[in-house]
Every structure is written in structure tokens, then in C-alpha cells.
């Protein structure tokens, strides 16, 4: 569908803002992984910088004791106890003029500009309420009872693994966060509204740092 003349596209980023969430404690990593160095640059700085492919402004959500830091962002705010609460804190600082908001995990420092452009284009140009980048699932999936007994093998047809960045019509994202619900990603809250969420191709290099081994892998990808 052609974009309407009054709608922003990825070439017109003046109405696009980004929220980078970096207020987690990194429990599985053992420390706040978003402040580790990757190729000599802090992970969070890379994630903020990546947003500039589409965003006129970046709101960075940080732990409350690090608000003197900037990491290349335009606005810095304190996060909350959950990821959703941190996104809400960031969203509250996004100017009302923003028509599209991109949400990105600081823990994904290798997201390339094409991912940001793809999620913004899907919203700006193609009219979706939200767009997420995702990969098809190649492993066999099983549902497990407790930690060990297999209950069933899940049909992976139609299943995808979702990454960030995720792009949203700003009004829809604000509405999705109004009642303070929790979800592992923002698209989940938007889906609950019955809004249209589309998928664009993700990137296998867009790894999320979860454990220390992931940082080594990211270093390897950066060098390769
Ligand atoms: N995040 C946040 N505020 C929280 C929790 C998470 O801003 N209260 C951010 C993290 O900093 C990260 C992203 O959300 O960039 C994805 O979360 P995750 O990878 O789970 O990071 P952590 O929550 O820090 O890690 P863990 O779950 O192992 O504690
Ligand atoms: Mg977490």
C-alpha cells in the first residue's frame, strides 16, 4: 500500500523517536551487561547509536543510580522494576509530536540499521500498528512439565522468535501501556488491544546478551 503524504517514512525520521531500555540488573549475566565493553564501546552506547538510523531522538532508560550518564541519548530517565515498567517510563518522556516509537533492548547491541528501517517502514509506509523483527525457529520445540519430563512436541509451523527493535504507531503503544500490564515484549501488549502487529525478517546476528557467553559470541560476530 503506498504511504499517505502525511505519514512519515524511514526517509523522514523527524517524527520517529526511540526508547532504549537499559535498566535491567542482568541477573542471568551476573551484572548489568548493558554497560560491558563490546569491541571497546559500551553495549548500551552501540544500542543507542543504532537507533539513529531512524530516530530523531532517543530516550534512554537507565538504573536510577546512573542518571548522570548519557551514552549518546537525548533524554535519560530512570527505569522501573520490570521491563514493561521501564518502557512506560521511557515512553512518558517521548515528545507528543512523535508519531512512531521504536523500542529497543540495550542488550541487543548488534541490531543493524536495516532492522530499524524495516520496522519503521512497516508502520509508516504499510500502515501496520506495530512491526517486530523475528526469525523462524529451527530447533525442535518441546513443552516440558517442570524441568525434565516432556509433555509434548510443539508444532513449530508458524512460530517465530521475536527480537527488538519493535516499531509502533505512538498512539497505539501509549494505549497499550495505559493500564500498566506486563508482557515480555511491547508487541504483546499491543496484540492484546486487537491491533495489527506484523513481522519483518530479523537478523541472526542480532543476538541478545543474556549470559557471559553471549558477549564472547557478539565479539566474534563483530570481528567477523
Ligand atoms: N530492562 C529494563 N528494566 C527492567 C528489566 C529489563 O530496562 N526492569 C531491560 C534490560 O536492561 C535489557 C532489556 O530490558 O536491555 C531486556 O531484558 P533482559 O535481557 O531480560 O535483561 P535483564 O532483565 O537485565 O536480565 P535478567 O532477566 O537476566 O535479569
Ligand atoms: Mg529480564
Explain the overall architecture.
The protein has 224 residues and is an alpha/beta fold. Helix content is 25%, strand content 26%. It has six helices and eleven strands. It has a seven-stranded mixed beta sheet, sandwiched between helices. Strands 2-3 form a two-stranded antiparallel ribbon. A hairpin with a 2-residue loop joins strand 2 (37-38) and strand 3.
* Structure ligands: cytidine-5'-triphosphate, magnesium ion
User: Roughly how many Å apart are the termini?
Assistant: 38 Å
Structural class: alpha/beta
Helix content: 25-40%
- Give the SSE string: EEEHEEHEHEEEEHHEH
Tally of alpha and pi helices = 6
Q: Report the mean per-residue pLDDT as an integer.
A: 93
Number of strands: 11
Radius of gyration, taken over Cα atoms and rounded to an integer in Å: 17 Å
Q: What kind of sheet is the major sheet? A: 7 strands, mixed
Strand content: 25-35%
- What shape does the CA trace take? globular
Sheet with the most strands: spatial strand order: 5-4-1-6-10-7-11
Low-confidence stretches: none
Amino acid at each position: 500500500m503506498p504511504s499517505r503524504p502525511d505519514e512519515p517514512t524511514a526517509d523522514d525520521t523527524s517524527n520517529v523517536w526511540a526508547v532504549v531500555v537499559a535498566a535491567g540488573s542482568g541477573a542471568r549475566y551476573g551484572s548489568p551487561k548493558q554497560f560491558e565493553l563490546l569491541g571497546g564501546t559500551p553495549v548500551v552506547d552501540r544500542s543507542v547509536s543504532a537507533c539513529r538510523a531512524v530516530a530523531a531522538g532517543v530516550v534512554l532508560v537507565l538504573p536510577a543510580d546512573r542518571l548522570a550518564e548519557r551514552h549518546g541519548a537525548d533524554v535519560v530517565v530512570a527505569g522501573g522494576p520490570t521491563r514493561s515498567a521501564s518502557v512506560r517510563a521511557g515512553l512518558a518522556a517521548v515528545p507528543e509530536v512523535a508519531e512512531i516509537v521504536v523500542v529497543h533492548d540495550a542488550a541487543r547491541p548488534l541490531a543493524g540499521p536495516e532492522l530499524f528501517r524495516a520496522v519503521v517502514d512497516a508502520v509508516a509506509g504499510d500502515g501496520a500498528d506495530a512491526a517486530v523483527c523475528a526469525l523462524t525457529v529451527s530447533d525442535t520445540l518441546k513443552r516440558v512439565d517442570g524441568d525434565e519430563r516432556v509433555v509434548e512436541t510443539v508444532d513449530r509451523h508458524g512460530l517465530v522468535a521475536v527480537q527488538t527493535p519493535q516499531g509502533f504507531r505512538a498512539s497505539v503503544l501509549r494505549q497499550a501501556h495505559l493500564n500498566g500490564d506486563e508482557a515480555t515484549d511491547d508487541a504483546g501488549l499491543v496484540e492484546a488491544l486487537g491491533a495489527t502487529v506484523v513481522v519483518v525478517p530479523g537478523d541472526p546476528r542480532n543476538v541478545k546478551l543474556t549470559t557471559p557467553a553471549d558477549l564472547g559470541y557478539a565479539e566474534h560476530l563483530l570481528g567477523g
